[in-house]
Amino acid sequence: MIDRRSMLAGAAALAATPAFAAKPKPLDPTFPKGFLWGAATAGHQVEGNNTNSDQWLLENVTPTITGAPSGDAVNSFEMWREDLDLAQSIGLNAYRFSLEWARIEPEPGMFSQAMLNHYKAIIDGCRVRGLAPVVTFNHYTTPRWFAAMGGWTHAQAPELFAKFCDRAMRHMGAGIAVAMTLNEPNLARLLPLVMPPQFLDGLRANLAAAARAANVQRFMVANTVPPEDVPAVTTGMIRGHRLARAAIKAIRPDLPVGFSFAMADDQAATKDSMRDAMRQKLYGDWLDVAREDDFVAIQNYERILWGPKGRLPAPEGGMRNFRGAEVYPPSLAGAVRYAHEATGKPVIITEHGVGTDDDTLRVRLIRESLPPLRQAMADGVPVLGYIHWSLMDNYEWGAGIGHGAFGLASVDPVTFARKAKPSAGVLGAIAKANSL
Amino acid sequence: MIDRRSMLAGAAALAATPAFAAKPKPLDPTFPKGFLWGAATAGHQVEGNNTNSDQWLLENVTPTITGAPSGDAVNSFEMWREDLDLAQSIGLNAYRFSLEWARIEPEPGMFSQAMLNHYKAIIDGCRVRGLAPVVTFNHYTTPRWFAAMGGWTHAQAPELFAKFCDRAMRHMGAGIAVAMTLNEPNLARLLPLVMPPQFLDGLRANLAAAARAANVQRFMVANTVPPEDVPAVTTGMIRGHRLARAAIKAIRPDLPVGFSFAMADDQAATKDSMRDAMRQKLYGDWLDVAREDDFVAIQNYERILWGPKGRLPAPEGGMRNFRGAEVYPPSLAGAVRYAHEATGKPVIITEHGVGTDDDTLRVRLIRESLPPLRQAMADGVPVLGYIHWSLMDNYEWGAGIGHGAFGLASVDPVTFARKAKPSAGVLGAIAKANSL
After folding, report:
1. Does the CB of A106 have a partner CB in chain B at under 8 Å?
2. Which positions in chain A touch B72 (Cβ < 8 Å)?
3. Total domains present in chain A
4. May I ask which residue range the UniProt record assigns to the signal sequence (chains A, B) (predicted)?
5. Residues of chain B neighbouring A60 (CB-CB closer than 8 A)
6. Which of A424, A427, A323 shows the shortest CA–CA distance to A370?
7. A30 domain residue, yes or no
C-alpha cells in the first residue's frame, strides 16, 4: 500500500536529485522501488448496462450526440475477476478503476449494501493479485437522479458527493491504495478546443431531450458541459472535491487523495504564444486545488502547439490516432513536468494511451514516451506511477465500442473474453523489470 | 430434461389410474419417476437493483403503495451460483427462476448480449447441478420503457413480448426444461378481493406519479392493474402469451410451454354459493388459454370459502400467515384438482408456500399439503412437479424484505449469505426420497 508518508518521503528523495547536472549522465533505466505500473478502466466504459446513470439516458434519447450507446460495454460488471486476472497476467502492480455512484446510491439516500460489497470485492481482488487499487470515486457519470436535480450546479451537490464518498470509504476504504475524487473535472474547458462548433448545439439539444424524458427543468452531466454552465459546474466540483477529500481523509488520514487533470503538453510555438494564458484558463483553478492535495494526477493524450492567437496545426507526418490527431510520445513527460512545476506535488500518470486499431502504434507510444518520462524523473520530477489507458478495449465516449479503442487487450463481442495484445507484453515487461 | 412427449405419456399413464377405486387403498407415498421437486424465485424479488424495471420506478416515486423498495432484494443478480448451490444442497431437482426483460432488452430493440449470456449461464449452472430449469419468461416486471408506452394495453405489446421470447429462446432455449410465459396474469382479478378498498385509489395515484416521472400519459404495470384497465390488459396478455408460446415452440417444438395461475382452492360454503360464478370470473378466460397449452401451472396460497354473496371468513383457529390469513394445507390439492378438471391438462405446481417468521408453520404446510396432493394424483390427476415458493427469503411485493418471508432459507442482510431453514430439510428429504 502507498500511504501518504512514504509518498511524501519518496517525493522528497526524488526532489533531492539535482535538476541540472553539469554534464548529461546516461539515463538510469530503472524506476524507483514501488513505482506503480498499472492500467485503468472507468465504470461506465467497461461495466455495461449502467442504466441508472445520467449517461445512459443521454445515450438513449433523441437527439443524442453520444454516438453508439454504451450498452453492454465490455461486461466488466460481471467479469471484473477476469479484468483483474488480465492485469495481473500482464505483470502490472496497480489497477485503476472507478466506483459507479449510480449503482451504490441508486436513489437519493438509498445506499446499496450489495453494490458496496461488489466494489469492496474488487478492491480485495486487487490485493489478492498484488495490484494496488487506484480508485476513482467518480469517473464522469453520476446517478440519473443527480443529473435530474441539476447535477453539479445544485447547491447540495458537493455535500451529496461527499456523503457518497463517506459511505464508500467506511465500507471499503481500508483496502484502497490511492484515492481520486473526480476524473478530469477540467475537461469542459478543453471541449470547445477539440470538438467542432456544432457539437455544443447538439449537446444542448441532447441535454434538453434528457430533461424532457426525466420531466425536469435541467439535466446536467459532468463530462459534457455547455460553456455557459462551466463556471457553476466548476464551482460545484471544486467544493465537491474538497468535501470529498475531507470525507476520505476523515476515515483514512494516511490515504493519498487527489483528482485527475485532462492535461495536454502545451507548447509555446512562437515567442508571443498564448500558451501561458491558455494554461491558466484550462488548468488554473484546478491547479490551485491540486496544491492542497497529496499528488497531482495527469491524463495526457496529446500536445498542443499554441501560437499567438490559438492552436497551431501539428507538423505533418508522425503517428496519428484513429481520429487523425497527432500522437506525440514526449507529450507525456512535457505534461508531467508542467504539472509538477505548477503544483510542487508528486505526479501520478493516471491515463496515457492511444485510440488506434494498430497496436504497433501503442507499442511505439509506450516505448517512446517512457524514456522522456524517466528523464524528467532524473531531472527531479517526482513521479509515483504510470497507469495506461486502458486495460482493454471499451466504450469510448462518442465513439462506441471497438473501433479505435485504447486497450492493451481486445474483447470478444459475444463472449467478452479478454485477449492481451502485443502492447500488453511490452508494457508488462517494463513493469516486471521496473526498468526501461 | 422433461420434453413434451414424456410429459404427455406421463399424463396418459396417470390418467389411466382409476379415479375412484371401489375401496380406498392405502396411499402409495412414492411419487412418479421424474417428478419435479423444486423451489422458485422471481427476478425482481431476488436479483436486486432492478433499476430499469417498471416496479423500481413505482417503488421510488411519491406516492407509492409498494411499501419498502426492493433495493438489493437478496443480490441474486450477483449470487445466483450460491442460489443454485443452495437448491442442489437441499436435494431438489428443479429450480424455477425468471428472466428480467428489463435487463435483456434495456431499451426498445436493444438486446443485451451480456444479459443473454447471464441467464444462459444460470440455465447451464442448473444443468451442471442436476436442476431442471423451469424458466418464467416474464414474472410481472417489465422494462420501464414498456410500462411507459402503456404496458400490455399498447397495441404492439404482444409482438414486443414475443420478440423478446424469441431472442431469449435463440440464445438459451436449448437448456430449458419447462417454459412459462407469464406469471399469474389473472392476478388483477383477485386483487380487489384481497386488498383493502383504499388500495385501488393508492394504486392509481402511484401509477400517475410514475407517469409524471417518466413524462408519459400512462404508466401501466402488469401485477397491479386498476379494475378499469383489466380487460385491456388481459386482452394484451392473452395475445402476448399466444404469440410468445408460438415463438418458443418455433425454436423448441418439444418444450412444454404454459403460464401460471394465481389460484385459490375455491370452496362452495353453501348450496347457493357463488363459487362457480367466481371461478369463471377469476380464471375463466385464462382456463380457455390453458387448454391450448402443454400444462396448467398453479400457484396456490389459500382457500376461499364462497357464500351466496361473497367470501366468507375462514374458521377460527388453525394456521395463520404473517398477515393473519388462514393457511390451509389441503388447499393445494383442491386447486390442483380443479385446474386439471377445468383444463384436462397435466398440472405443475409452480408456487406454494407461506409467508411467516415461524418456520415450523412452513414445515407443517409442506408435511400436511403433500399427502392430499399425492391422494389427488392417486385419484387420477396428473401432477408433474411441486415447486415451493420460495428458495429463500426475498423481496415480497408490498411488504419489503425479511419480515413474513417465504424462504426455505434465510439471507444475511449484510453479506447476503444464504442459510437453509429446517423446512428446507423437510422438503429436501421428501424430494431426495421422491416419497412422502
Report:
1. yes
2. 112-115
3. 1
4. 1-21
5. 107, 110
6. A427
7. yes
For B174, the grid coordinates are 436449448
Are the Cβ atoms of A113 and B414 closer than 8 angstroms?
A: yes
- Cβ neighbour number for residue A356 with a 10 Å cutoff: 21
This prediction has a pTM of: 0.93
Determine, yes or no, domain membership for A5.
Answer: no
Domain-embedded: residue B3: no
Is A62 at the interface with chain B, CB within 8 A? no
Q: What is the pLDDT of residue B2?
A: 45
Chain A touched by B49 (CB under 8 Å): yes
To test the contact with chain B by mutation, choose from A46, A49, A66, A122 the residue with the greatest count of B C-beta atoms within 10 A, namely: A49
Given an 8 Å threshold on Cβ–Cβ distance, is B415 in contact with A117?
yes
- For A374-432, write each residue's pLDDT tens digit: 999 999 999 999 999 999 999 998 887 777 899 999 999 999 999 999 999 999 999 99
The tens digit of pLDDT for each residue in A202-225 reads 999 999 999 999 999 999 999 999
Residue B317, all three cell numbers = 383457529
End-to-end CA distance of chain B: 23
Q: Which three cell numbers stand for residue B353?
A: 408456500
Within 13 A of B75's CA, how many CA atoms are on the CB side? 21
Residue A2 within any structural domain of the chain: no
Q: How far is A55 from chain B (nearest CA, A)?
A: 14
Which CATH number fits the domain that encloses residue A94?
3.20.20.80
Digit-coded pLDDT (tens) for B70-125: 999 999 999 999 999 999 999 999 999 999 999 999 999 999 999 999 999 999 99
d(CA A436, CA B337): 78
> For residue range B14-65, what is the model confidence (pLDDT) as tens digits?
444 555 555 668 999 999 999 999 999 999 999 999 999 999 999 999 999 9
Cell of B388: 415451493
Which pLDDT tens digit goes with each residue over A77-87? 999 999 999 99
* Closest Cβ–Cβ partner in A78, A115, A215 for B213: A215
Whether residue A114 and residue B69 make contact (CB cut-off 8 A), yes or no, is no
- Residue A55 in contact with partner chain B when CB distance is under 8 A: no
The answer to whether residues B40 and B96 touch, using CB atoms and an 8 Å cutoff, is yes
B-chain CB neighbours of A72 within 8 Å are 112-115
Contact B78 A114 (CB under 8 A): yes
Residue B202 contacts A where some CB pair is shorter than 8 Å: no
A110 and B71 within 8 Å at the Cβ level: the answer is yes
* Residues 6+ away with beta carbon under 8 Å from A180: A134, A135, A136, A137, A257, A258, A259, A260, A297, A350
A113 inside 8 A of chain B by CB: yes
How far is Cα A96 from Cα A387, in angstroms, rounded to an integer?
Answer: 7
Q: Which secondary structure element, helix H or strand E, spans residue A414, and what is its range?
A: none
